[in-house]
Amino acid sequence: MVRAALTQRNIGKGPVTAAEYIPAVSVMAASLLAALPIVSTIGWFPDFGFVMLVAWRLLRADVWPAWWAAPLGLFNDLMTGNPVGLSIAVWTAAMLALDIADRRTMWRGYWLEWAIASLLLLGNEAAEWRVAQIQGAPLPFITVMPPLLLSILAFPIAAFIVSRLDRWRLGR
Predict the structure, then answer these.
(1) Burial class (CB in 10 A: 0-12, 13-18, 19+), 19
(2) How many CA atoms are closer than 13 Å to the CA of 124, on its beta-carbon side?
(3) What distance in Å separates the CA atoms of residue 11 and residue 13, rounded to the nearest whole number?
(4) What is d(CA 51, CA 120) in angstroms, rounded to the nearest whole number?
(5) pTM beyond 0.85
């Protein structure tokens, strides 16, 4: 019995150094994807930083203090070229909405998390569209569909990446 317990490979392993910062660093790395040299005439590129934030928050609510949304949103605004304050406001509202969802739901399955993420991603794209419209861009609402669909389809990939990062950072 003791020999079997000692041969487990998880004994003596623990969280990696600075494990509490890995979620924030991964969201910032996803926000940096907007700096890739991709040239396009239409705005099809989704907000990968927000997708990663939602994936982390749905997986691990305990590592996210609500105030983290403001500095991460500021970093996203600076990297993506959004007006400063847009991601701060939307990401903070998303964190608060997810806190409410955590308190209201008894359990969540994969499909419910994907539906919650889809609603939050729709809210993010709608806010970006509205701010662009206020600034004078004559855009129909249909222009948010390509980045919205791409971000909804990218959410399971982001959730998988987040689960692997979380497993690695906790030493499991």
Answers:
(1) middle
(2) 30
(3) 5
(4) 9
(5) yes
Contacts of 119 (CB under 8 A, 6+ apart): none
Q: Where are the domains of the chain?
A: 21-169
Tens digits of per-residue pLDDT, 86-135?
A: 999 999 999 999 999 988 888 888 899 999 999 999 999 999 999 989 99
Residues 6+ apart with CB under 8 A from 44: 146, 147, 150
Considering the domain 21-169 in this protein, what is its CATH number?
Answer: 1.10.1760
- Summarize pLDDT for 23-46 with one digit per residue, the tens: 999 999 999 998 888 777 767 788
Q: Is the dihedral of CA 58, 62, 68, 72 positive or negative?
A: negative
Place of tokens 């494990």: 19
Closest CA to 166 of 9, 51, 62, 19: 19
Other Cβ atoms within 10 Å of 23 Cβ, number: 24
Which among 168, 172, 161 has a CA at the least distance from the CA of 59? 161
CA–CA gap between residue 4 and residue 32 (Å, rounded): 45
Distance CA 97, CA 91 (A): 10
